Amino acid sequence: MRTGFPYHVKAWGRSFSVALLLCLSPANGVFGDPGDFVVALEGKPACVIVVDPQATDKILDAARELNFWVGKVTGAQLPIVTMDAWDGKTAYIAVGESGLTRANGWSRQPFDQEEARVFIEEGRVGLLGDDEEPLPKIERKGTYFAVLEFVRKKLGVRWIWPGELGEVYSVQPTLSLAPQEWRWKPDIPFLRSIRNGYRMPRSRAKIEEMIDLTSASREEWERLAAEHDQWLSRERMNPSRMKTFGHAFSKWWGLYGEQHPDWFALPPPGVPQTGSKNSKLNLSNPEVQDKIFNDWHTAWKENPEANRYLNISPNDGRGFDTRPETRAWDAPELADVPAEEIYSGAAPILSDRHVRFANLLAKRVREVDPKAYVATYAYRNYQSPPLTSIQVEPNVIIEYCGGEGHYPDERFIVEEWVEWSRRG
After folding, report:
1. How far from each other are the two terminal CA atoms of the chain, in whole angstroms?
2. CB within 8 Å of 348: residues ≥ 6 apart
3. φ/ψ of residue 307, rounded to 5
């Protein structure tokens, strides 16, 4: 069977259509078999979207995301109705858990973290998932991810970069789908995050310089920021567990510097130990390790669920410890590097000492709580993987901070990421 359909293309801010002549079978979704689910007929809606009467804003956002892409692909806007307003006859796409999804057995089994489920059956589709909010500021968006699964795999949508220019899809005024079901859950279950530079005031000058946005108005800047927020959501960026990163010891010098100077990095001979919020620690000092662990343990006993992540991310900047005890934790090839270079040089790779420090604490917190984790950075002198064969304990989570924003030209980012992953 031959048919033609237009392929929607955006280029240089203009839209145009290209007629493609293809051989299509019912499996392509243009001509349906009995039992297929029909989304739209000749640009008109053939079903409705059904949500629970108590649907949250998160579920309604997922329903609107679905309708956005259905409209792009078919030209149809599906009515969004609550379950008690559904007529009981019209074909439907159930978005989020409701009496319909439970009656159909789609949500009978417990969800895994952020799991998304897609069910395509005759006369009905179910898009639902793990939408739990276990702790403040921790949001899981399984239903939204189910919508993304559905529109990517069954509507053929792609969003290759932020904004309308990055939207790729074929126009299909008539769309039917063969029965199918599948599940999705993230390979990275902790923190999937890419910073939106348009939301970072300090980045504006650099962005304006790099891509000539010096004349952009505040409204234009906000539009670009919003487009990037939307794109990152579609890329399933999400902090889905209680995670803690950020420079963890910025208050330590003010609290302990006078009484415990030996808790902090020792400079090279002749360089004074000037404390600040960026002071580095003496990682090899058992008292430092005990203090960090005991502070965490006290908080954990008060609220284990909210304190399953011990943040040991180093303070910003350089100024690393030069004591022999700490340098013994470094790779052997650094043995002859001058103390001045260890302290403030950009070249020495000090990842081995930081991994050893993280591992010691990871073992201790795991003995208290098998579900507890240690969180730290791979950044600056500890950005590159360790030089020795040391492995990372399984309950250490590392936030890799590599590159200066010119990816994909900086191939080492991928190489370092892969090696860190191999370490643990």
Report:
1. 52
2. 320, 330, 334, 337, 341, 342, 381
3. -130, 40
Q: Between the CA atoms of 6, 93, 152 and 46, what dihedral angle is there, to the nearest 10 degrees?
A: -10
Closest CA to 124 of 49, 58, 51: 49
Q: Is 143 exposed, middle or buried (0-12, 13-18, 19+ CB in 10 A)?
A: buried
Structure tokens at 268: 């090279």
- Beta-strand ranges (E) seen in 98-214 are 116-121, 124-129, 158-159, 167-170, 175-177, 180-184, 191-192
214-225 pLDDT, tens per residue?
A: 667 788 888 989
Q: Which residues pair with 233 in a beta bridge?
A: none
pTM over 0.85: no
- Give phi and psi for 313, each to the nearest 5: -60, 125
Length of the chain, in residues: 424
The secondary structure of the chain in percent helix, strand, coil, rounded to multiples of 5, reads: 35, 20, 45
Per-residue pLDDT for 261 more than 50? Answer: yes
- Euclidean distance between CA atoms 280 and 264, whole angstroms: 6
Cβ–Cβ contacts within 10 Å for residue 28, how many? 17
